[in-house]
Amino acid sequence: MASTEEDFITNEAIFRAGDGSSQYHCPTCSTPFGRVEELCTHLTDDPRCNVVPIPHALRQPAGPDEDHMGRYHKKSGSIYGFNRPNTFERMKAHDYETAREHNVYYPFSGREEWELAKFLIENLNQGQISRFLKLLWVKSEARQQPTFKTASQLITFMDALPKGPPWRCTTIKTEGYVTAHPVHLIWRDALEVKKHIFGNPVFANDMEFDPYEVIVNGEREYGEWMSSLRAHDIQDELPRGGLEMHPTFLTIANIRSNIHMKATAHAWSCIVYMPIPQYICNPEFSSLLQARMWHRCMDIVCENLKHAAAVGTSMVDPLGFLRYGFTPLVAYTANLPEQQMIACVSKNASPVTLAIQPQFGDGKVYEPRTGQGTLKALEELGRRIDPWKVQEFQEVAKVLYLSRVYLPFWNNWRFADPAIFLSPELLHTCHKFFFDHVLKWCKEVVGADELDTRFRSQHKRTGTRHFGQGISHVQQMTGREHRDIQRTIVPTIAGVANPDFVRAVRALVDFIYKVQSPTFTLSSIADMASSLQEFHEFKHAILHAEARQGSSGPIEHFAIPKLELLASFARAIPQLGSIIQFTADVSECMLITQCKNPFERTSHQRATFTQQVVHLLDQEETARQFDLYALLRSNSLSLNNLIVNEFDKVVDMDPMLGWIMRVAPEELSRLHGTRPVRNHFLKGLLSEDSRIAFHITVSSDHSNKTPSFLAHLYQLLNFPQKLHSFIEGSVNPALTTRFQSHLLNVWNKFRLQLHSTLRPRLIMPSQQVQAYPPSPTYPHGNCDTVLLRMHGEGEGGNSDAIVAQVRMVFSLSKKGPPLPPELDQVFLYVQLFEVIGRPQDDVGVMMFRIRHRFATGPDGARTQVGMIIPLLDITHAIELIPIYGDRADRAVTSSTSLEHYDTFYLNNFSDKEWYHTLHTEFM
Q: pTM, whole model, 2 decimals?
């Protein structure tokens, strides 16, 4: 590594050289310095002037009874220059900058024409644009005509805008082999793309530059990549002050995961369209040659990234500070076949461990398959057999569990190790695995008709998928639908399947939920691993039930490649951080936006459609960036995004919209992007501890109604009596009669909003709770269930009655005498449930069991226990799943199941937040 250190020192000396000025002032505190080196050291070391965003993990306040501390890595984060142009500032160096000093939107006549041009480019193909421009309405002299008269002229105008990293086309040939068509690699230099993203001021508040440690109650916490062991290990080997920038081919891990996990944030850039050559050869060799071509192409695209990983390179961050960065390959998100191709192993071997197919289902954790070990095996094989003697090479490679690739693209990439950078992936390894295997086991055991009946009869909740037609007929689903089935599968199969079978399925779903946490400690990793181990302990019940079926009958083993990958998750988390940040959901979305959608706007000609797609994407990227750039300049705003480090309640927000909301909120309406979650904590009703916000509409659904009218409408015959008793118990007895005659306002629904239990400073999207009166569609009403905060014992002295079904949402009308504070609020009429079983009572399902709570009147009649409570006593919206027994009632529908069945499971898996809450606060 001596040469690397020398290269770094030489470059460092260049960066720290002055520009001839006698004094340099700190851009934050204005302190003068005689040398650039002194100012850079000041900017690096003084926390008041090192204006970089503080990682959220270090800004997170400690929770109750929680010890929370953090520290940065001692060697990272040096600044080598300041006032350098970021990605937007570099756009000023464009050829037409002189013209844009007078008209920011040049070559377009102004903002109005630019918006028209942007709409046409993003939505129409050239033929459609031409037809639009020929319309008499467009060419009418009564209005100003566009300065571009044809589609080709519009495209010429777009090409005159400042662009990002250029696309290139390289023709690739394989010596000794002929392809049916020429092979063209269309690509961009990955290092240029990474620098472009790294300097984008849109992400200024969402960047992390330094590895850090977070300690919670004495345990190290792993979340973002910068908090991982691998980040620290790499930094230990870099020169002091080196900054990691971590390519995943499409984005950089400096950007916080909750930003780069959203395709709409545009933190990803397409860098290559990989060719799939059609070789004219023996079909057995075609896939081998294609795999070798893939590695060769990746080597071309990533050549400069590999050089930067070895010796470093200068790059400007969003704030205009010059950094010296390194680009090790840290994470590559791929499905299993692609992982095996990248790791250069055969299909019957794990890409990340030494396990082979017969060992895939045994539940053991095998040693990692290190990159050095694979390279050594390939080198020894290459000495014995010429890699281009394809048939001989292929036969011996299979014996060694190697693929036919002999020169992987990562072989000379510093720090690159497939056992580490092939990150665990949730979409395919967990959710798709669940659909392809676990769900099929459940169908075999429960039966398709019974399973469909149970799914159809479950109560509909707003915001979650309800399978009104069942699930057995669906052959292909999205990842979101896989998750929706996971939510209810455990209580749905209970009663039919063997308890050990249910326990195995529940343990696997437990594992999938635990692995999606945004942060981990060694304790939570061990807890996650124990769920997987529990599955392996009870998986024999799946084989015993003959639930694993193949084309020729029952399968008597669990040699499933994805099942083996799950065992490596626990080892990967300390190395890479939380696994959820590497999900393929984003790349699946990018496949649609970067391939399928643009393809529809091409001429569909095989020879040129890839080039057309690239041109379209280049136009869209240019237009999106120029739109924000021109908006800032036209409003005389800075092209640097100010850092906001104040701790505050936050909602998920598109970073571009967040920037404009701070500096030019009046322009927000004309920008496109994912709108932020509405924050009801600002204007809604708050609980006593201000941890829960409620929202009801200003106008009620039923206004100024009498209690007797509402009792008839909602079929709640005892409601007037309950209301009378409630008012008597709430105010001075002398004032009771004054308020008994008040009319009521009623709402059919309200919204409830919580802070995330997984990321406490984040405000979650609100949940709607329904309380509709009976109707022909819903004969008993459409009413959701909630969890209550009980201030004391409920009616009858039973303090377990904390689960309730909301039957009515109401308040006393403002007409009449002024209401005292006790009555001047929103109330609920709820019917209660009681707990009849705790999770440990049934370790298969591991859920609370509850039932309707009844009271027996003097005449012996049983009625459901109801009570009136303040709206603010609700803590959570929850989901109940009927306990079906061995056969579901075919007459029950989703609109009657909560009233027809008597006993229910309190579903742990209704969503990830509730799962975590239930396990930390109630279990």
A: 0.88
